[in-house]
Specification:
two-stranded parallel sheet; alpha/beta; single chain; 362 residues; seven-stranded parallel beta sheet; 13 strands; globular; Rossmann fold
Length: 362
C-alpha cells in the first residue's frame, strides 16, 4: 500500500461501496480485484450477456469472500434504482457495461447505440436521483479516429470514428460533458458531481493467479494464444498495407491489471477533491509505446518459445492504422503509470491459455 492509500485508509476513506457495472466482464472483473485489494467494497452489476456467472464465483474464490452481485441490465431503470436503494451509500460508479466489439458494431449498429448510450443515460439519471457524486467512465482510444499526430494526447482533435463502437464512445463522452454543463443551471445548491473519463488503449493479458477471462475470442491476443496452442491453424493478420513501419496496424498494448489500477487511482483522486464541485477530466491510459501486429508476433515467440504460423489477410472494417498514447497527464495528476512490459504481458496471456487448456474451458 502506497503512502496515498495509507493516508486515505487512516481517514476512513476506504471501504466505500463502488458500483461496478459490467463487473463480470474482462476489464470489470480485473478492476474488482484491484478495488478490493485497495480497500474498496465493489458492488457488481452484469447482465451476463457477454460474460459468465463463473467469473463472479472465481472472483469470490480468489478474494476469499462473497461479493454483492446483481444480474441485471443497466438499461433497466427500475432495477438500477433498486440496487442503489438496497445497497445504500454507494460512493461512486465505474461504468464498464457496454458492447465493445468493433466488427460486431458494424453489423449491429442499432444494438450498440441502444445499449451503450441508453445505459449511460439511465445510470446518470439514477446517480443524480440517488445522490451518487462520483463516476469513472470506460471510454476508448477509438474516440480519436485516425488521429493526425502520434502519440495522441487528451487534447488531440477527434477525427470521425472508424467504427460504430468508437462513435458510441464519442457520443457517450459528449453525454457526460453535456450532463455536467447542465448542472450549471441548478440554482438551489451547487451539485456535487465529478467524473473521470479514461480513454483506454488496448488491454491484454489476464491476472496471473485469478481464474478470469481474457477479452473476446476475436481479440488479437485471444487469437494469438489460440494459434500457439494449436486451436487455430494460423493467425490472420488483417492487412499489411497500412502506412506504418511494417505495414501492419500499430496499437498501444497494456496489461489489464495496469488498467485496473488506473481505476483505483481515479477513485482515489475523485474522493480527495473538494465537495460541491462538478467537472469532467479525461486521461489516456496506455503504455506510451506502439507495437505493430508483426512485432507482437515476434515478441510473443521470443517471450514464450512458441511458434506462431500466420498469413496476411484483408483489412478489417473499423481498424485505424496507428494509435498509441501520451500518458503524461495520468502520471502527473493521478500518479499512475503502466508497470508491465510487453513481454511480461504476453507471458501472462500464454499462461492464461495454458490454464484454460488444463481445465478444458473456453
Amino acid at each position: 500500500m502506497n503512502e496515498l492509500r495509507e493516508i486515505l485508509a487512516s481517514n476512513n476513506q476506504k471501504m466505500k461501496k463502488i458500483l461496478v457495472t459490467g463487473g463480470a466482464g474482462y476489464i470489470g472483473s480485473h478492476t474488482v480485484i484491484a478495488l478490493a485489494e485497495a480497500g474498496y467494497e465493489p458492488i457488481l452489476i452484469d447482465n451476463l450477456v457477454k460474460s459468465s456467472k463463473n467469473i463472479v464465483t472465481n472472483l469470490e474464490k480468489y478474494l476469499g469472500r462473497k461479493l454483492a452481485f446483481y444480474q441485471i441490465d443497466c438499461n433497466d431503470k427500475a432495477a438500477m434504482y433498486q440496487v442503489f436503494t438496497q445497497e445504500k451509500e454507494i460512493a461512486g460508479v465505474i461504468h464498464f457495461a457496454a458492447y465493445r466489439e468493433v466488427g460486431e458494431s458494424a453489423k449491429k449498429p442499432l444494438l450498440y447505440y441502444t445499449n451503450n448510450l441508453n445505459s449511460l443515460a439511465v445510470l446518470l439519471e439514477v446517480m443524480e436521483k440517488q445522490g451518487c457524486p462520483l463516476l469513472v467512465f470506460s471510454s476508448s482510444c477509438t474516440v480519436y479516429g485516425q488521429a493526425t499526430q502520434m502519440p495522441v494526447t487528451e487534447q488531440t482533435p477527434m477525427q470521425p470514428a472508424e467504427s460504430v463502437y468508437g462513435n458510441s464512445k464519442q457520443i457517450s463522452e459528449e453525454m457526460i460533458h453535456d450532463y455536467v454543463r447542465s448542472l450549471s443551471f441548478v440554482t438551489e445548491q451547487t451539485p456535487d458531481f465529478r467524473a473521470i473519463i479514461l480513454r483506454y488503449f488496448n488491454p491484454i493479458a489476464s491476472h496471473p493467479q485469478a481464474d478470469l477471462s481474457m477479452g473476446y475470442p476475436n481479440d488479437l491476443i485471444r487469437m494469438l494464444v489460440a494459434t500457439a496452442a494449436g486451436e487455430r491453424e494460423k493467425l490472420i493478420v488483417f492487412g499489411n498495407d497500412y502506412p506504418t513501419y511494417d505495414g501492419t496496424c500499430i496499437r498501444d498494448y497494456l496489461h489489464v491489471m495496469d488498467l485496473a489500477e488506473a481505476h483505483v487511482k481515479s477513485l482515489d483522486y475523485l474522493i480527495q477533491q473538494p465537495t460541491h464541485e462538478y467537472w469532467v477530466r479525461t486521461f489516456n491510459i496506455g503504455t506510451g509505446k506502439g507495437n505493430s501486429v508483426l512485432e507482437m508476433i515476434r515478441t510473443f515467440e521470443q517471450a514464450t518459445g512458441q511458434s506462431l504460423p500466420y498469413e496476411i489477410g484483408q483489412r478489417r472494417i473499423g481498424d485505424v492504422a496507428e494509435v498509441y498514447a501520451n500518458t503524461d497527464q495520468a502520471q502527473k495528476v493521478l500518479g499512475w503509470k503502466a508497470k508491465y512490459d510487453l513481454a511480461t504481458s504476453l507471458q501472462h496471456s500464454w499462461q492464461w491459455q495454458l490454464r484454460k487448456q488444463q481445465k478444458g474451458t473456453t
